[in-house]
## 1
Amino acid sequence: MEGQKTALYNIHKNLGAKFVPFAGYEMPIQYKDGIVKEHISTRTYAGFFDVSHMGQFFLEGDETLTEALERIIPADLKSLKINHSKYSFLLNNDGGIIDDLIVTKTEKGFCIILNAACKENDIKQISKFLGKNHKHVLNNDLSLIALQGPKSVEILEKLIPGVSNLKFMTGNKFNYDNEKLYITRSGYTGEDGFEISISNKKVEKLINFLVLNEVKPIGLGARDTLRLEAGLCLYGHDLNEKINPVEANLKWAIAKKRKDVGGFNGWDKIKDLLSKGSEKIRVGIKPEGKVIARENTKIFSRDDNEIGFVTSGTFGPSVNAPVAMGYVKSSFAKAGTSIKLEVRGKKYEGKVSELPFYKKSYVK
Amino acid sequence: MSEKKFSKKHEWVSLEGDIATVGITKHATELLGDIVFAEVPDAGKSLDKEGQAAVVESTKAASDVYSPISGEITEGNKAIVDDPSSINADPEGASWFFKLKIKNKGEFDSLMSKEEYEKFCKENPN
């Protein structure tokens, strides 16, 4: 079956994209330059990513909407200011992560950015809590473009004055070509940057401007190496419905007030784990030498007991070494702990590492 | 000058006397993308025709490298292990994977010529 195409499909083609099926879409895995060059140009200049396959889910309603969403999202949505964003999750009854997301407070309600592969189910899960007076729409007329890298602000400010005033994890409406765009300062690479929500009709014009300013198109391949160096999770790999935020080492993303008061799916379980700790936990992993420990690589202790598994692993071009993330028994989670990684039947040395592997430069 | 032949699994072989040098083709490196890891066999290892001989990994995925020809390894190229990106730079020259002493020249003769391989790649772009 042929995958869905984003509004930029033909532009990608002209830019030399190699496509792969991803979450039901035909998406560029890389362009002519290849993954390493795309990665480096994002870190040193700027790159753009078509993330239009992700769900842009808009909700409208009064304070009962906030209450409804707080039953499935453990963020403090009541205190969230207009145009401010939070990283959070949808949780199931066991505290497992149905999806990870960015939620932004809008004038009329909320906008939630959902993972492409999860969006249909997410909406089903969210809808269980919604009332008749809560309007919601998955807006497929909008594209979503991430502009990432140290030069992003300088370049985007030329086209859309005012974006440089945005702080990390905030957004606002801006005028562009007789259209209102919603732009947030955020991203998935560990770099400064923006996510631009723009109509499918105008997105080509925006991309032409970026290309003229020597911003390179970046595919899913470099998106993965960038986010992994930044220690960020990829849903379906590092996170899934059987993993809860405490195990995922993401308890920081549960609002303090919500931890104390609860009232969301899986709170009993999460409260328990918050006080006594989880059996396993997500950690960074640095294999020694050049060997790459990919997803499902088994992790062993120094005395050869199996203690965990890798959930993401690749070569980090900016770290100039292999990097990985995975879950280990909590007693082995301390940074610097020696471990072994079984790759192609052979055990290689490695160490538990601090995350991120690559230091961020967000504008606070 | 040595003769160069090609396999359907995108390896090249050149033969001098009874010593074959094996690497992966430029076409293979283009399919793989940026190469970040290589593992080569140790001298003394015996390989069957189409036996798994080496490993190459790009940022995307790991792939096995097979020996298109049977024989005993005389040398693995440590230079590509130390600098895997050199495989992208010169796949059909300095960045060979291993050398082996062949047993059966017939296996070499049955591989594809350069023209046949190019035609094969056109018909099987992936």
## 2
Amino acid sequence: MKDLIGIKELSKQDIEEILNTAKAFKEVLQRDIKKVPTLRGRTAINLFFEPSTRTRTSFELAEKRLSLDVLNFSVSTSSVVKGETLYDTLKTIESYNVDYIVLRHSSSGTAKFVAENTSASVINAGDGTNEHPTQALLDAFSILEIKGRLDGLKIAIVGDIIHSRVARSNLYLLSKFDTEIRFVGPPTLLPQEIPDNVKIFFNLKEGIEDVDVVMILRIQLERQKGAFIPSLKEYSHFWGLKKDLLNYIKKDAVVMHPGPMNRGVEISTEVADSSQSLILRQVTNGIATRMAVIYMLKPKEV
Amino acid sequence: MLIKFYNANLLDPITKTKGLADLIIEDGVISKIKLKRKSTPIQIKGKKSKNILEINAEGLYLFPGLIDMHTHLREPGYEYKETIRTGTLAALRGGFTSVCCMANTFPVNDNPEVTYYILAKAKEEGSCHVFPIGAITKGLKGEELSEMAMLREAGCVAFSDDGMPVMNSIIMKRALEYSKAIGSPLISHCEDINLSEDGVMNEGKLSFYLGLKGIPKASEEVMVARDILLSKYTKAPIHIAHVSTKGSVELIKFAKEQGIAVTAETCPHYFTLTEEAVKDYNTNAKVNPPLRTEEDLEAIKAALKEGIIDVIATDHAPHHIDEKKVPFQEALNGISGLETAFSLSLRLFHEGTLSLEELIEKFTVSPTKILKIRKEGIKEGAQADLILVDINKEWTVDKNKFLSLGKNTPFDLWTLKGKVLFTVKGKKFLDMRTE
């Protein structure tokens, strides 16, 4: 496999392989010396056209643990502001003989576009509202660690589904396993036509009832502008996950959030800091999962 | 210059002529049409002189030159995308001898000087008849009416803000009212731009799957309904451009049943492709209105058959390669359509949706009625304005052979059945028999 464009493009077997490899890397990360020489002499560039601290940091750490030389290319300092096309930016980067491109872009489909136009391995770190595959992989890895399986689980994804690449990647990943998937949120934030294997709930309590996993999505603070929600206060009141609601999910159910959280909006502090929360574990697992992905991709021989 | 066609199947819905015929064109004018019972064997002895072209048209059709009601020639202002010279050559190659060019040039065709410029250029460098379409509002801004009467006087045959729909209903109402004094119709690109927001494809399961922002069908239908009601209220005719949804078809059907002066067009891509064509983020299939679903495609075909949709137009929208070689969201809308439109439409004949006569009407008689332009058709003494077509010839689309500067087509490498072999427009002709 040359690139990781999205979960859409992966088979169940690919996913299982990545998750197994991630497990091995997690063990490495628990050693005293956390760095492996695997990819020494190779170069990765983190090409971020959208601001992101967490994802970029997580990738950078994963790259360094694999002994890659790492370049960071971010939009504010780039020639993009000078009007260079993405295609030309890519060709320039390609001329540096970079082996891996980690891409974040505000436009859906950009990861595919980039992968088609370069011989380097491209890893999608989020393209528009399309996909954020490493997030779904690290989420699956985290669920597996706790639950030991994905098959047979009921998962509720709560919040701003239509604008969320995390929701999409998780949907595609979980759909490859025998899971029950629910979308929960106000109708303005749910897809206009519902994917076949998804159940829709407008009511949070009903939506999370008896589930094994609740994935909370971040609500963008500007959503009231497009008339998606009347106010954050109202959103929080009806769709924010608060402590009393934990009674409705299974006793051993877990709560996840891709970060960064708006405490007190989509998730209350009590829930975020509860023993059922996997949020910090997700962050830790992000590094191992991303190491696994980079390790498994093979740039095209030029 | 003498061009002789022998044993052609002449089919002309303008003059209502049909039958086997020999036809002679002398210096751009049809000098003789001989209708006959059966084909007579002819011997073409090669070129007798440089100035005689003899064509054995046995098994081939002669149709009147096609009219495209919806073309973007891009000149003035966007000559890197297309020019009047290249656009009209592409037209001839596709069988069109007349094109109506949209007003979204730079500067906008909202004043007579631009119209004069286009017509002068067309006369100098153009290969086919160019009918300019003037803007409804100045600068396509939807605020003040353009000088519609002066535009008409200068040669505009219709008015449209095309891709920049007139959102303000009172402006649209006044434009409709005003157009009655001029006698030329408004052509409406029906789209509620608030509903479309920054959508880039049809809204539905696929748009969610691809993570692309959708354009609801209602975005078109809301405006089709509005324009129909405004047309009814003002008693001014309205022509609905590039119909893409089943809902629009139903609204237009209703309007026609009510006797409202509404006409409509669609484009080959709306009865050939569905949203599936953008599945791989194929920017060459990005078009506005967006490609819809199977049910819409079927409804559009049925509407063509039932006469609810009067016209097939190309919405020829050439773009530079750099404008399509970008991520999907950023790519410009449009398909370079002149050179594939008629062959794609012939599929409607081959699959039994339309008779050949009905199909040719959609490209000839209907546009002349809506635009009130005169076409003499294929008759003795008339200027030659006709095409020779092999309706069964299979050929493969090659965008690199396009005469249009716009190579943006989702039909590249498609094999199509039916090809224009020869186009004559007055003294100009284009011979594609050896392509």
